[in-house]
Amino acid sequence: MLGEIGSQTGFHAAKSPCASAQASYPHTMNIVRVESFVRDRFGLVRLTREDGAQGWGQMAHGDPDVCATLLHRYLAPVCLGHTCTGLAELTQLLDACEFGPYKSRGTHLIRALAGIDSAGHDLLATAAGVPVCRLLGGEPMRLPVYASSLKRDTRPADEVDTMLRYCEQHGVSAVKLKVGHRLGRHRSEDAGRTEALIPLAAAAFGDRSLKVDANGSYTAEEAITVGRLLEQNGYDHYEEPCPYWRFDDTRAVTEALEIPVAGGEQDCCDAVLIHQVTAGCVDIIQPDVGYLGGLRRSLAVAAVAAQHDMPCMPHAPNPSLLFPMSMHLSCAMPNRGAYLERNANRPSFDIGMYTGLSPLVDGAVTVDDTPGWGVTIRDDWLSACQHQQSQL
Q: Model-level pTM?
């Protein structure tokens, strides 16, 4: 369903926080249109510049209708009429977007900001004829992935069999399984599933890298008990053992265990992730390019982690545009982890949103020199979206 809000010239001329500063910007290469395309749990953003250059981005996964409302109410007025010719100008734009809505900052606004950030980077990279990673100072490269299961409702033997077949089919050398019950205080979906799954997977996967994600299932004491079992079975990554907002609990687990503890995917505030790094709450930091508001904020977190010799492994299980965005983000991080997360529960990894994504070959995906994100958004996917636009 295609519907259009239409031209709002008078509104934006009156409300834009940048209106009084327009004289300091050239009146060419300005952003003249901000569009959102919402479908199911996904929300794409398209920016159009005065010279016709366009860029695609995505708001974080989930509540795209809410995010689109905030996008057009708070962020589009900042973007329209703002110059966008390079990273310096884009940074000024994003700073204005980020700090403008003083009373309305929160996860949904930051999720919407991710759409502006990513579309702006794609616009600049595409116009320059380079991949986004190169615009950020990185290089196209091959990225090994770990197969990430999102399931907790499977029997241990079935889960191990499914994931092992996936790894063997695609040459993947690392896997992540779900343990516990999300925020469940040590309750598994099936009683005893975690305790059975951990040693069973260790025996089946041999020398593959083994990881688990608890999604905040445990108290610190419970998490340490599970962590000991993971250590005994050779696992190398223990993700979000405690509720993500309980930093002291997570730090207690990190300090008690040898297995690296990972976290950070849920937070929308870059200062919170930086605190987790500097306070030693985790051993591996995991910004989500959508939840955290885009590449710029994610790279800022990665830079602080690099100063503390901490690897950065983006949270990236979503088969939407967020995955190629995470690929380019990883290419631009000197302290990227050994693997990039990839959803293993959708074998085709295709939701019909785009074409051109690098296939999974020999356990890795590849970023090449194709401009922008390296993918093409499909018109037939857009045709079923709810469409809104704000324009100058």
A: 0.91
Determine the Cα–Cα distance for residues 153 and 179; give it in Å rounded to an integer. 10
Give 206-258 as a DSSP string: TTSEEEEE-TT---HHHHHHHHHHHHHTT--EEE--S-TT-HHHHHHHHHH-S
Distance CA 283, CA 335 (A): 13
User: How many CB atoms sit inside 10 A of residue 243's CB?
Assistant: 19
**What DSSP designation does 15 have?**
H
| 27-51 pLDDT, tens digit each | 468 999 999 999 999 999 999 999 9
CB 295 within 8 A of CB 329: yes
DSSP per position, 267-292: ---HHHHHHHHHTTS-SEE---TTTT
Instruction: Please state the domain extents for the chain.
Output: 9-129+380-391, 134-370
> What is the Cβ-side half-sphere exposure of residue 318, based on CA atoms within 13 angstroms?
23
Q: State which fold the 9-129+380-391 domain adopts.
A: Enolase-like; domain 1 (3.30.390)
Per-residue pLDDT tens for 282-316? 999 999 999 999 999 999 999 999 999 999 999 99
Alpha helix segments (H runs only) across the chain: 9-15, 64-70, 76-79, 87-99, 107-128, 132-135, 156-170, 193-205, 220-232, 247-256, 270-278, 295-307, 322-331, 379-382
- Report how far residue 391's alpha carbon sits from residue 101's, in angstroms, rounded to the nearest whole number: 19
Class of domain 134-370: alpha beta
